[in-house]
Design a protein that fits this description.
6 helices; 109 residues; mainly alpha; 82% helix; globular
Amino acid sequence: MRWLTRDWRTAMFSCHSMATFSLKDAVPRAIEAALKALEIHDSVAEAHASLAYAKLIYDWDWTGAEFELKRSLTLNNNYPTAHHWYADYLAAMGRTQEATIEMRRARDL
């Protein structure tokens, strides 16, 4: 799944640096990469986390983001990025105590 990580990072770096793509262009590419990975193998924690993050920051699909983040953490509870993004989700939902726990978990991993 190396290509998924590369595609997601390229899309998001481009979005944040304003180098190549706008958010409108970058995130759909990242979503496409995550969905492609999940078509191939549904148990890739990184793909679920990437899809969740896109749902969180782009679609504002809170329910979908939470579902994908929980799926990612079920598949790999030692994936720090999923804990970080879950903390972002929890903070956005006003669940600050839970968010703090998740961010500490991400840091400790």
